[in-house]
Design brief:
Elements: H1 2-12, H2 44-50, E1 58-61, H3 67-77, E2 80-84, H4 91-95, H5 98-105, H6 111-131, H7 136-150, H8 157-164, H9 174-201, H10 206-209, H11 212-223, H12 229-243, E3 253-257, H13 267-281, E4 290-297, H14 298-307, E5 322-324, H15 329-344, H16 355-358, H17 368-374, H18 380-393, H19 402-424, H20 431-439, E6 445-447, H21 448-451, H22 454-466, H23 476-484, H24 490-504, E7 507-510, E8 537-540
Parallel strand pairs: 1-4, 1-5, 2-3, 3-4
Antiparallel strand pairs: 6-8, 7-8
Helix pairs in contact: 5-9, 6-9, 6-12, 6-13, 7-8, 8-12, 13-14, 18-19, 22-23
Length: 553
């Protein structure tokens, strides 16, 4: 304590004044222009993303972990890069197509069509980027260049015919490409099933009145339209583009796709389109100087897995193509120090201001930075938000005291709980009830046995069961089974709840006595119910203690 007082006294001879409106950055990377690039932390996932030779193409991380920051950094550094904003694509045309909606309603597998859409878009974007196509004249010139080089290769004949259809259209916008491609498929489907589509458009749930045999007949009739032929042609185009690099071509090209978590297409198709995009990426590994990067939130990936199980989408088979975002305490400290230095740069020419200059006091017996980081999910957004809350509370002061940190924690924790619910609402629609289930016990740490109280389990099972099933709530079927059976198993229901709360980061779990608490942001992201033992314990993450008015574990 004497040392802390000495530091504070020394600092007041040249005080750092915390003025109103000061922050170390915005929570969202897209709004953080002042700090993001000049305070960027170059850590291992960045290298994987920039390295065109690495397999990593999907940047997987929770909201606020830095996916968009990596995209912006690469776009600012790469000489040849293009950003694809899904909201600027014409995917709404796909979801509004009567023909495709009819096929979707009768159970036709549209995955091949969606893969063809993505591969077409990515091929065209690469052609535009590589050959600097800006007009129709350039576009036709590029086609002639490719045709003259590969015209003697019989294996490329189909690919050349495919590009021939688009020779003057490489320069047109992505939404125009998608619209035209969709219209071609739509026209072919209507030629085959026009009368049925008109009945579907008339309403009255026509598709539900069709027999299974009739649906199968329709699906079979359009299978030749939505077939693998176009994918085969596109595979040839990709091969042709990979061979057009030339031995002296050292340029690296980047296609960056972000904002897939936003409302860029109807939710009924969004996750199937994302699944098709992920599947399509593998084909572009053949083009060795092209790097396609897709930013994908962990909760969105969870929903993709839930909604495409019928399509045998397996996350582990594609794991080599994922770049998983993980931060360490030293990296987060580097990030915060860099931003604080930037905040005060110019005001103190003879001093470099860092975290310890602004936060000189411990919180209890814990270092201030350790205290803050312990109450986050080890993400830049969390740490930046907490530090900003502290600076807000400390307006007009020379430093942030332990009392101010505790005051800031209350608001920070409440906001983090709201953010947690919003982040995972799509994958786990019952998330708010689950947080209440574990939080209203007013204990930071509880045993699995305590959570299995029949009354509380009955209440939450009934609440989930009595509501209409929401989207793909993984707890709905379990709640239905629990509530309808006489020999109910509260333990099975609780283990499923604990597994979800662990997955979203709301709790840590100690599987048995003598082991440590595990957290999904530090350890395995998934914790199967079979691993729980009778003496398992659950600990609410310190990030949520303020929201639940808890003091200690």
């Amino acid at each position: 304590m004497a040392k802390q007082k000495s530091m504070a006294k020394q600092k007041r001879t040249n005080p750092v004044v915390l003025r109103p409106g000061m922050t170390i950055g915005a929570n969202a990377a897209e709004m953080d222009d002042e700090f993001l690039l000049k305070c960027f932390v170059h850590y291992p996932p960045v290298e994987l993303c920039m390295n065109v030779a690495s397999r990593g193409m999907v940047i997987d991380g929770r909201t606020g972990s830095g996916k968009t920051a990596i995209m912006k950094f690469i776009h600012s550094k790469a000489e040849y890069s293009v950003e694809i904003d899904p909201s600027e694509m014409a995917m709404s045309y796909v979801s509004n197509s009567d023909a495709l909606n009819f096929l979707h309603a009768i159970g036709a597998d549209l995955d091949l069509l969606f893969q063809a859409l993505w591969k077409h878009v990515l091929c065209i974007e690469f052609i535009r980027l590589k050959f600097s196509v800006t007009n129709e004249t350039n576009s036709r010139s590029v086609f002639e260049r490719l045709r003259s080089r590969f015209s003697r290769d019989d294996r490329k004949a189909r690919a050349i015919r495919y590009l021939k259809d688009w020779e003057g259209k490489f320069w047109i916008t992505m939404d125009q490409n998608i619209k035209e491609l969709t219209e071609r498929v739509e026209k072919a489907v209507k030629a085959e099933l026009g009368a049925e589509i008109e009945k579907f458009k008339a309403g009255g749930q026509y598709e539900k009145r069709l027999s299974t045999d009739k649906k199968s007949e329709f699906v079979s009739r359009v299978r030749k339209i939505i077939s693998s032929d176009q994918l085969a042609e596109l595979a040839g185009v990709i091969e042709m583009l990979s061979e057009s690099e030339g031995g002296d071509d050292m340029k690296h090209f980047y296609i960056l796709i972000d904002k897939l978590d936003e409302h860029w297409v109807d939710v009924s198709l969004r996750f199937k389109l994302i699944r098709a995009l992920i599947e399509s990426l593998k084909s572009f590994r053949r083009i060795t100087n092209l790097k396609i990067l897709v930013a994908l939130r962990s909760d969105v990936l969870e929903r993709v897995v839930q909604e495409t199980r019928d399509l045998t989408f397996q996350r582990e088979k594609l794991d080599d193509y994922f770049v998983h975002i993980r931060w360490t305490k030293p990296l987060l400290r580097q990030l915060v120090n860099s931003r604080i230095q930037s905040l005060f740069r110019g005001q103190y020419a003879d001093r470099v201001i860092e975290f310890q200059d602004v936060f000189p006091f411990n919180v209890g017996n814990v270092d201030a930075f350790d205290y803050i980081v312990e109450r986050t999910l080890m993400r830049p957004r969390d740490v930046i938000a907490f530090v900003n809350e502290c600076i807000e509370v400390a307006q007009g002061s020379y430093e942030v005291t332990s009392t101010m940190i505790r005051r800031a924690e209350s608001n920070f924790s409440r906001i983090r709980r709201d953010a947690l619910e919003q982040e995972w609402q799509s994958a786990f629609p019952s998330i708010k009830r689950l947080l209440d289930f574990v939080g209203t016990r007013q204990k930071a740490t509880v045993t699995l046995e305590e959570l299995c109280s029949p009354k509380e389990v009955d209440d939450i099972a009934l609440a989930i069961y009595s509501e209409k099933k929401i989207d793909y709530d993984p707890l709905y079927e379990l709640a239905s089974t629990y509530y309808e059976k006489d020999n109910r198993s509260a333990e099975e229901m609780v283990k499923a709840i604990v597994g979800i709360l662990y997955r979203v980061g709301a709790i840590g779990v100690k599987l048995k006595n003598g082991s440590r608490f595990m957290y999904s942001h530090l350890d395995d992201a998934l914790l199967p119910a079979a691993q729980f033992t009778e003496d398992a314990r659950v600990r609410i993450h310190p990030m949520l203690w303020g929201a639940f008015h808890l003091q200690a574990a």
